[in-house]
Write a structure and sequence with these properties.
By secondary structure, the protein is of the alpha/beta class. 45% of the residues lie in helices and 14% in strands. The chain contains eight helices and seven strands, in the order βαβαβαβαβαβαααβ. Helix 1 packs across helix 8 and helix 4 (99-127) runs parallel beside helix 5.
Length: 249
C-alpha cells in the first residue's frame, strides 16, 4: 500500500519541474491527484501521461482557487492534501527592480499560498483532517543579492505556515513548510540568475556537492502529506544538501 493511499491531493504549479515530480510521486504513492498551472500545454501533456486531472490555475486569483478545489471535490468527493508549490523567481537588484515586478513575485509566491490555505479549509474541515505543505526555499532563511522579492516572499511563507498551523490545528489540519536548496529545475537555472552566480564558489559552499533531483524534494513533501507525519505541524524542513550549514553561504 502506498504512503498516500486513499488521499486526494491538489498540487499547484504542477506542470513541470518540482511540481511535476510531486504529481508523479503522489500518484505512485496511491493518491488521487488534481494539479493546476498556467502552463496549459505542459499541464495537459502531463495529465495525458499520468492520468492526473489538470485545471488551469492562476494562484493569485480566488476564482481559480475555487475552481481547482471544486474540481478535486467533484471528481473525488474529498480533499485531503494541498501542496502550495507554485512560485516564480525574478532576479533583479533592488535599484533595478520595478514595483510591478516586486508585486508580481509577492502575489504569486505569498498571496497565492495564503489563498490556497484559505480555499481548502472548508473541504478539509468537512473531511475531518488535512495536510498542507507550503514550498518555501532556503532563501526563506537567508537573503540573497538580487533576490529581494523572492526572499521576502519565502520568508513570508514561513510566517504564514506557522500562523496557519496554530489556527488550523483545532480542525486536525497540519501545515508545514519545505525549503529546497539547489534543485535542478528550469526556474533555478534562470539565465539572469546564472549569469550572476559564481558557480565554483557556490559548489564549494555545498556539503553535498551536487544539485538535487526534483523528486528528492517530493519525497519529503509526500512524507509531510502522509499520516506518518501526524505529529508535525508548523515545522520547517530543509532539503538543501547541507547548504545552509556551509560557512560560505
Amino acid at each position: 500500500m502506498g504512503l498516500l493511499e486513499g488521499k486526494v491531493a491538489l498540487i499547484t504549479g504542477g506542470a513541470r519541474g518540482m511540481g511535476a515530480a510531486h504529481v508523479r510521486l503522489f500518484l505512485e504513492e496511491g493518491a488521487r491527484v488534481v494539479f493546476g498551472d498556467v502552463l496549459d500545454e505542459e499541464g495537459k501533456a502531463l495529465a495525458d501521461e499520468t492520468g492526473a486531472a489538470y485545471v488551469h490555475h492562476d494562484v493569485t486569483l480566488a476564482e481559480d482557487w475555487a475552481r481547482a478545489v471544486a474540481t478535486a471535490t467533484e471528481l473525488h468527493g474529498q480533499l485531503d492534501v494541498l501542496v502550495n508549490n507554485a512560485g516564480i523567481l525574478k532576479f533583479r537588484r533592488i535599484a533595478d527592480m520595478s514595483p510591478d515586478d516586486f508585486d508580481r513575485v509577492i502575489s504569486v509566491n505569498l498571496k497565492g499560498t495564503w489563498l490556497g490555505i484559505k480555499s481548502v479549509i472548508g473541504p478539509m474541515k468537512a473531511a475531518g483532517r488535512g495536510a498542507i505543505v507550503n514550498i518555501s526555499s532556503i532563501e526563506g532563511f537567508v537573503g540573497a543579492e538580487g533576490l529581494s522579492a523572492y526572499s521576502a516572499s519565502k520568508f513570508g511563507v514561513r510566517g504564514l505556515t506557522k500562523s496557519a498551523a496554530r489556527e488550523l490545528a483545532r480542525f486536525k489540519i497540519r501545515v508545514n513548510s519545505v525549503h529546497p536548496g539547489a534543485i535542478n529545475t528550469s526556474m533555478a537555472m534562470d539565465p539572469d540568475l546564472m549569469n550572476e552566480v559564481d558557480a565554483d564558489a557556490f559548489l564549494k559552499s555545498m556539503v553535498i556537492k551536487r544539485f538535487a533531483k526534483p523528486v528528492e524534494v517530493s519525497h519529503v513533501v509526500a512524507f509531510l502529506a502522509s499520516d506518518r507525519a501526524s505529529y508535525c505541524t508548523g515545522s520547517e524542513f530543509t532539503v538543501d544538501g547541507g547548504l545552509l550549514t556551509g560557512a560560505g553561504y
